[in-house]
């Protein structure tokens, strides 16, 4: 993010960023009085630079305690991109662990979302999605069984979209998503290695292929301390 700070404050921001780079996550910054004297700057100017880094989530203030370094959240775009591709673009290594996998028959809710008859075969599976070995999201997916014959749990170690395209000719063309804040249930919190009191973000969506078929329904829970979502907004003609 580009700084909106002018002159001296921008210079102090750069010094703060250099200082943050030398400190471990969660380390306390020296007191404002000390930093102001070290860099020969007014405390108000220093505070403005700190404020901007707090907004960017590189620093966090704790009332009555001080200012600490924070691990920046991974910002995922709400767009037509799978988890694996998104994480790779950020210079991190995506991984998947299949937690649950079963063949079943579509109940009314799943049949409605997938636009298939009730009772048709479906595959449902849950995967833990990781970035550089850190749990980031629990992803629950349902696919129409007739679209993916022979698909098994061992096939799910990488990108699902790449697998669907390469093996079954199913290409992601469009989709819809709904984002909402949630608290994780005990099982999900355990998989994400977070306390059940940690707020999370849930993303529910359906995906359409180039034949305009719904080929996937997903319900994912992203840990709120490590994930932020970014959406691109465009004006539509009135």
UniProtKB/TrEMBL annotation:
Coiled coil location: none
Source species, domain of life = Bacteria
Q: Name one Pfam family in it.
A: GntR
Q: Which CDD domains match?
A: WHTH_GntR
What UniProt keywords apply to this chain's record, in alphabetical order? DNA-binding, Transcription, Transcription regulation
Q: Which residues form the HTH gntR-type domain?
A: 2-72
Query: What is the name of the protein in this document?
Result: GntR family transcriptional regulator
Originating species? Kribbella koreensis
């Amino acid at each position: 993010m580009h700084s909106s700070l002018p002159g001296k404050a921008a210079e102090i921001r750069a010094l703060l960023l250099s200082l943050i780079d030398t400190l471990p996550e969660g380390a306390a910054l020296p007191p404002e009085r000390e930093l102001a004297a070290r860099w020969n700057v007014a405390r108000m100017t220093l505070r403005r630079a700190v404020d901007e880094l707090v907004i960017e989530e590189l620093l966090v203030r704790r009332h009555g305690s001080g200012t600490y370094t924070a691990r920046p959240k991974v910002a995922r775009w709400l767009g037509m991109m799978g988890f694996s591709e998104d994480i790779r673009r950020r210079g991190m290594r995506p991984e998947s662990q299949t937690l649950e996998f079963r063949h079943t028959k579509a109940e009314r809710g799943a049949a409605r979302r997938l636009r298939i008859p009730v009772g048709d075969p479906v595959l449902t599976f849950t995967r833990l999605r990781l970035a550089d070995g850190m749990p980031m999201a629990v992803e629950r997916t349902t696919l129409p069984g007739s679209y993916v014959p022979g698909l098994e749990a061992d096939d799910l170690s990488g990108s699902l979209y790449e697998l669907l395209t390469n093996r079954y000719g199913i290409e992601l063309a469009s989709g819809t998503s709904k984002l909402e804040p949630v608290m994780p249930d005990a099982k999900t919190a355990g998989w994400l290695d977070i306390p059940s009191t940690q707020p999370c973000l849930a993303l529910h969506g359906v995906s359409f292929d180039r034949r305009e078929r719904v080929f996937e329904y997903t319900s994912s829970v992203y840990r709120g301390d490590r994930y932020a979502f970014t959406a691109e907004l465009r004006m539509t003609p009135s």
